Fold this protein.
Amino acid sequence: MTPPIGTVPRLATPAEEGLAAKPTSLWTDTRRNILRQRVAQVGLLLLGTLLAIAITAPIIATHNPDDTSGIDEGLVTAGLLGPCVHLLGCPADRPEHFFGIDRNGRDEYSRVVYGARVSLLVGVATVSFAIVLGTLLGSIAGYAGGWLDNLIMRLMDVLLAFPSLILAIAMVTVLGPGLLNATFAIGIVAIPVYARVMRASVLSIKERDFVVASRALGESSRGILLRRILPNALTPLIVVGTLGIAGAILDVAALSFLGLGAQPPLAEWGSMIGLDRNQLFSAPHLIVVPGIALSLSVLGFNLLGDGLRDALDPRLNR
Amino acid sequence: MLRFVVRRLLLTIPVLFGIVFVVFAIARLLPGDPCVAALQERADAATCAIFNARYGLDEPITTQFWIYLTDLSHGDLGDSIQQGRPVAEILIERLPVTIELTLFALTLATLLGIVLGVVSASRRNSAVDVGTMLGANIGVSTPVFVLGLILIWIFAVLLKDTPFVLPPGGRMTAGVTVVPLAETWGLSELTGPLRSVVDFFSNMNVINALITGQWGPLGDALRHLILPAVALGTIPLSIIARMTRSSLLDVLGQDYVRTARAKGLGERAVVLRHGLRNAILPVVTVIGLSLGGLLAGAVLTESIFGLSGIGKMITDGVTGRDYAVVQGLTLVTAVIYVLVNLVVDVSYAFLDPRIRLQ
């Protein structure tokens, strides 16, 4: 809003230029930068909580997530068979169900807690799969060049031309529904992004002096790719990968919501929402609670990804 | 300019060919027997032999691909096993619903996204800015199906007895109908492709009601469209708002903007006339790219709100193991996505002369 006041550039004093300061490593810089970002802090906090919940699920869950004993005679006679929550008339003598119980009499709180494991695992697994294959394809394309580069990258273009979730739906239709197949399909669909990022990095690094020097010293192509190029191409991969986990969690949850991913009785947020969506009018907590859990997890990865991008971008630091 | 357009068109052809190949490959090369998948428990050796012969699955894979290509060139997407009629025919019926929903959501996302982005950028770090960016972060992180269901809960359940109540699904209230265009225009006799075109537009209730002045049904159709469009449009809205903000902030930091301010131009003119005009280009790209997410989101939105567009058709196809339907729609959505982005790229060249000179 306010225009810059002076036009004379402020000259940095020697101390400010850091002449006296000890040189810091890239990782120290990065860590400090990440922690300085409010966005990244919130993201880390959310993800830390999510991870803690996932690890300690057996301890903090009050019930077995698959235990259907919530339905009992007392509820049936009270006319309260089925999903309920305290606000909506769950019996006061059953306070142990924090978030009420679901359609099958299972404890909603415990299912949401266990769901953190599935979503976290699925998000990381999908992106790891896509990063490994994408990095491989991208580095081959970037390093080899020529027709191989063309072939790989045009194939990646074609995969990118599909709305990703729809392509994944088509693949799961053929493979058959299931969490593993859904993860695989979302992973395949995500490959082109990493292939492109990796190829761009390889292209920008492979002509640098230190790579040429390694080659002159007789290092093999594989060695150059693994030891010289890959470490220097990691930064963008980490950023895109973190944001990719957010997308992967969303997409797998969407497939599960449609009944193509996680199968009952597995406590997975997307499939919990999908199976209980018809209870929306009588028991909205069955949608809202796993929905909020899902959003917060995705938000965590999105914020951390944004924060990482800003922290790792040297143009923004100096 | 013409050279740019032609080059861009030529580059699209291999991508389209690749799309056809991938869709074909998914059905034929991935593990899983299409016969077993389609017929389930009825699939035995004898039935499958007939099934495979019927759909040409007993031919060598290259011949199958050739047959597939030939069929496609005739506009033949195969037959739906569930409905026993051509996929293309169902598609023509369903597509208007999806186009209407997607366009409505995209318009909402674009207009609101640009306004919020501009306000955020011009009042950087103000409460509005922080609030918008927080909202945008939450917006991109909330799945369409969660948002859709929560919206239904709020507007159809919690606000049931207030004037803000909105219908939980469907396209029109039972009993309210839009008179088909063919009837309004006295074209009931019309047949053939021209009739299909008329019916196509007729099926977009809002557009039909708007051009024929059926105000009652128009209001009803719009009321039914609000919740699905908000659910579907929130993610692109968030992305567009963020993109507009960051792009505008980049531009506002440039020297010519300082010059504009220095010569005494009002802030509004600086931001809108000088800033936004240059900042809008990356936003246009993002709008084009967000169509992919919109088409995928339409699958979920239509399933939640009970709208019978192509998204519902895909989910029905998936549950009914209707291969041809899923395959055909995957192909069609990808082609739509590619063509729209072709248009976006070409319009980009119109907007920015530097692009076509490259």
